[in-house]
Design a protein that fits this description.
- This protein is mainly β and 166 residues long.
- It has two helices and eleven strands, in the order E-E-E-E-E-E-E-H-E-H-E-E-E.
- Strands 6-10-9-8-1-7 form a six-stranded mixed beta sheet. Strands 2, 3, 4, 5 and 11 form a five-stranded antiparallel beta sheet that branches.
- Strand 9 and strand 10 form a beta hairpin.
- It is globular, with a radius of gyration of 17 Å.
Length: 166
């Protein structure tokens, strides 16, 4: 199997790089994850004036991610020199301009979708293959936190803002 192809989930938020993802609640086949995220508040677009920068449009929020019909859940804290996804294993489908800070923020403003939310859908899932899941409605997600990686295979995913923290 080649590299796993990761597509960023299309959401207006980005998982915080400075907070851990450590709160989980699982009941039957439903999983809830609480995490901290930077949320782009598009309602501020017409209200802020000249001289505003990207962070005037961002709120720090607590999100609840909800996964239904969970078939696999894996939480790991890989011990490595530089934390992140192994480029030998993963191919992240992100616009190259994402690595230019100003282009990243401008794209987030223009589309109201975070270019790299640190949550991805895996196209060619190794976990689904290992579990012999052929149903295309079952999806594999990877979340990247401060120093943890979470893999979830489930039927669907939704999210909601639980609280504004700033």
């Amino acid at each position: 199997m080649g590299k796993l192809k990761l597509n960023p989930v299309k959401v207006p938020w980005k998982i915080s790089a400075s907070d851990e993802i450590a709160l989980f609640q699982c009941e039957n086949d439903r999983l809830e994850i609480l995490l901290i995220a930077d949320f782009f508040d598009s309602s501020k677009l017409g209200k802020l004036g000249i001289g505003s920068d990207f962070f005037d449009y961002v709120s720090i929020v607590q999100l609840r991610l909800i996964f239904e019909t969970v078939l696999h859940f894996e939480y790991s804290r890989p011990q490595q020199k530089a934390f992140g996804l192994d480029s030998q294993k993963y191919d992240i489908n992100i616009n190259p301009n994402t690595y230019d800070r100003s282009a990243f923020f401008q794209r987030w403003i223009d589309t109201q979708i975070c270019p790299d939310p640190q949550m991805y859908q895996v196209e060619n899932s190794d976990i689904k293959k290992a579990l012999n899941i052929k149903n295309s409605s079952i999806l594999h997600w990877i979340l990247i936190g401060h120093d943890e990686i979470i893999n979830i295979v489930s039927k669907n995913f939704t999210w909601e803002i639980v609280a504004c923290l700033q």
